[in-house]
Design goal:
Layout (H helix, E strand, L loop, with lengths): L2 H10 L4 E3 L17 H13 L15 E3 L22 E2 L2 E2 L5 H16 L1 H25 L8 H6 L19 H6 L14 H18 L4 H10 L1 H11 L11 H17 L2 H4 L13 E14 H7 L4 H7 L7 E12 L15
Antiparallel strand pairs: 1-2, 3-4, 5-6
């Protein structure tokens, strides 16, 4: 067994007793030049941390038994089966048919998929504190169900700059044709599909249309959002059905609605499923919208960031719709951190 493997076993602290025989054919290790910076630094670090390799001693017996310390584990073991999907669920005011065996299994599958990756689920829950408030406001103003906001978690994980292989972009994942249909501009400079408020406005219009197209059936409307209304209608006609839960369609569409319903159950109660309280969620940053008038051929975002007391990365994250690191000549609206007085105010000369 090589020296680095032996060291790893010691460092890991695994509770076990291992016999580490030395191969009869092992050759002496070459002498390392202590003057080499790399060797010198690593040697000092090993000494400081107490990680000197005990296997470097050539006088040790070949069959030395090494006892590694036992790790004491406290608390009950975590089982996913400790979580149960409720017997009754509603979505957008409508009951979910959990008494149908295949419906329940499909939703439970997504339910446990979310919970299985606890780390990602915690981050998703935290992001809802930042991305849900604007969507909640716009859905309420449009008279649409608040539950539709959970589509954001399934579509983009609440990431404004999300982009898919199908060229869908933004928090609501509009493909170019649908984005254009709802007046979301996309060119070399801007992709308005990445703007949360603008894309939510477009999603509200599209979802309202789908609700009317699918005769107020939100399950069918969401399936149509995912696969396209004409494709869903064709599947229903071919299978002689009118119920989404009986439809056999693309795997993604079959999972899409159950995943949104499972997301609602978990992320509407993060304290129950993830141990998070409201104060643990990411809070929206206070921003203000400013007008940027670029009079030269272009202006770097770094320069704009400095003018408004922020930095390049933060400006990019607050304005994911801007695709370039510089803006060409023109007039733009940008979000910047809210300040009592922008940095440029302090650069003005004091009055006499």
């Amino acid at each position: 067994m090589t020296t680095w493997v032996q060291r790893a076993l010691l460092i890991s602290g695994l509770w076990m007793a291992v016999t580490l025989p030395v191969s009869a054919g092992t050759q002496p290790q070459p002498t390392v030049d202590e003057s080499t910076p790399h060797a010198g630094v690593n040697g000092d670090l090993d000494r400081d941390l107490g990680l000197i390799d005990p296997f470097d001693n050539p006088n040790e017996s070949e069959g030395r038994l090494v006892i590694l310390p036992e790790i004491k584990r406290e608390g009950d073991r975590y089982f996913l089966s400790s979580f149960k999907l409720p017997d009754k669920l509603t979505f957008a005011g409508k009951p979910v048919p959990l008494d149908n065996w295949q419906v329940r299994e499909r939703i439970e599958y997504e339910f446990y998929q979310f919970l299985e990756d606890q780390g990602e689920s915690i981050i998703l829950a935290k992001r809802t504190g930042r991305c849900f408030p604007p969507a909640e406001k716009q859905l309420a103003e449009a008279g649409l169900p608040d539950d539709l906001k959970y589509m954001l978690l399934v579509e983009s994980k609440c990431v404004a700059a999300a982009y898919s292989k199908a060229k869908a972009s933004g928090p609501w994942q509009f493909i170019p044709s649908t984005g254009k249909r709802y007046s979301l501009k996309s060119d070399e400079v801007l992709d308005e599909r990445r703007n949360l408020e603008m894309s939510t406005e477009a999603a509200v219009k599209y979802l309202r249309y789908l609700k009317d197209f699918e005769k107020n059936d939100w399950f069918m409307a969401m399936a149509s959002y995912n696969a396209g209304e004409e494709r869903v209608r064709r599947l229903l006609k071919e299978q002689n059905i009118t119920d989404y839960w009986k439809m056999h369609g693309p795997r993604e569409t079959m999972r899409y609605v159950p995943r949104i319903i499972a997301a609602k159950e978990i992320y509407s109660q993060p304290e129950k499923y993830l141990g998070l309280s409201k104060k643990d969620l990411y809070m929206p940053m206070e921003t203000e919208t400013v007008t940027i008038n670029v009079k030269d051929s272009q202006r770097a975002l770094t320069s704009i960031a400095e003018e408004f007391g922020t930095y390049f990365l933060e400006l990019k994250m607050l304005n994911p719709e801007f695709k370039k690191d510089a803006l060409p000549r023109g007039i733009y609206q940008m979000r910047v951190p809210r300040q009592n007085c922008p940095t440029r105010c302090f650069k003005q000369e004091k009055a006499p």
